[in-house]
Amino acid sequence: MTSATRRRSLSRRSPEKGIARGWYQIGWSTDFPPGTAAPLHYFDCDLVAFRGTDSADGTVRQVRVLDAFCRHMGAHLGHGGTVEDDCIRCPYHGWLYDANGLNIDVPYGGGDATGIRISSWPTTEVDGVVLVWFDPESLTPAFDPPTSFARAQCPAWPLDGATRLWPGLTMSPQAAADNVCDAAHFKYVHGSYDLPGLASYSADGSVFRAAYDIGFGGGMAHTWATPHGPVAGTIHTEATGLGLLWNRLGGVDEVISLLGVTPIDATTSDVRVSVWVPTERTDGSPMPAAIRDRWIGQQHSQVEADLQVWANQTYIDRPPFLTNEAESMRAFRAWSAQWYQA
After folding, report:
1. Contact call for residues 123 and 62 (beta carbons, < 8 A)
2. Which of 55-59, 159-163, 212-216 is predicted least confidently?
3. Which regions of the chain does DSSP assign to beta strands (E)?
4. pLDDT tens for each residue of 221-240
5. Which end of the chain is more exposed for a tag (fewer CB within 10 A), N or C?
6. DSSP readout, 213-233?
7. What are 337's strand-pairing partners?
8. Is the pLDDT of residue 7 over 70?
9. Domains, the chain, with CATH or none
10. Mean pLDDT throughout 72-83?
11. pLDDT value at position 229?
């Protein structure tokens, strides 16, 4: 490899294979009120998201996502498009498209439909989080989306301030996903007192899981998170595809956070975090509002610490892993490779 080639390879900010297929977060349910259309730009595509209602009984429909442009003369449906039942009408000439993107009405054409179709995107909503499926070849979902995040643990959600968005960062989902079984970064990025131990890791189809043994409150007689002194705890991390990443704390208050990294294009992403805080502390006492808010702030600040690295790093295709990290990190990279187009 020449020095010029090496410089080019080290300046590459994301994997060469482009955007990985998978489920990605495009917002929270509250971002898409009934009867409104919203323009989106993800996966290097212009999109429109809308949520309809049933005119008969007022039932709120799930969020729908279509390619943005009317097939007639190219108007963007997200800028002035109107939602009717579970359909969207073009603001330019009134063509009406159903939830699957099929033109079902041309109002000045005698009510006839053309049969023209706009591409539709598989979507789902899970515990207040809106997901869309992306595949570079427009194939149907290769795996099911999650069915629940943490609704049983925290039924009243989202809490005030529990969600946060960092838009337009120069990073790919791979940068964040690589942390799933990266033990060393907990000390150097997140300030853990001791280096945690990677207790286990496993790949199970669309999900990669890792578990860490870690001490909370080390070196301190007590903290707001460990009021009775240091605690031997756990952190469970999990990736569903490369776009949805979880952290679950154990030993201290059982807080769960979801990180959604959604590509705008191959090198830029929006990053969202959602935090679920239990209604009770580990000792069974009610969770005070002040402690709840501290947990939310703490989880957000941990993401910010990661982002300082992720948004400024380059992508190393074959890192020189040390012996004590090589097996797990290579296993994760091998698992993640399946989500890219061959």
Report:
1. yes
2. 55-59
3. 22-28, 37-42, 45-53, 60-67, 82-84, 87-89, 96-97, 103-105, 120-121, 123-126, 129-134, 163-169, 197-204, 207-216, 231-240, 244-250, 256-263, 269-276
4. 788 888 888 888 899 999 99
5. C
6. EEEESTTSS--SS-TTS-EEE
7. none
8. no
9. 36-134 (2.102.10.10), 163-337 (3.90.380.10)
10. 97
11. 85
The percent of residues above 70 in pLDDT, for the chain, comes to 94
How far from each other are the two terminal CA atoms of the chain, in whole angstroms?
Answer: 24
Contact 167, 155 (CB under 8 A): no
Residue 110 near residue 99, CB atoms below 8 Å: no
* Alpha helices by DSSP H, the chain: 3-10, 173-177, 185-188, 289-310, 323-337
pLDDT of amino acid 111: 67
CA–CA distance, 273 with 262 (Å, rounded to integer) = 11
Nearest residue to 233 via CA among 248, 221, 243 = 248
Question: What average pLDDT does this structure show over 255-268?
Answer: 95
Pairwise CA distance, residues 182 & 237, whole Å? 10
**pLDDT tens digit sequence for 11-47:** 455 677 899 999 999 999 999 999 999 999 999 999 9
CA–CA gap between residue 155 and residue 247 (Å, rounded)? 18
Cβ atoms 120, 108 nearer than 8 A = no
Only one residue has tokens 């059982």, namely 254
Give the torsion through C-alpha atoms of 189, 191, 192, 193, to 10 deg.
Answer: 140
**Bridge partner list, 27:** 130
Can you read off the two tokens belonging to residue 331? 């296993």
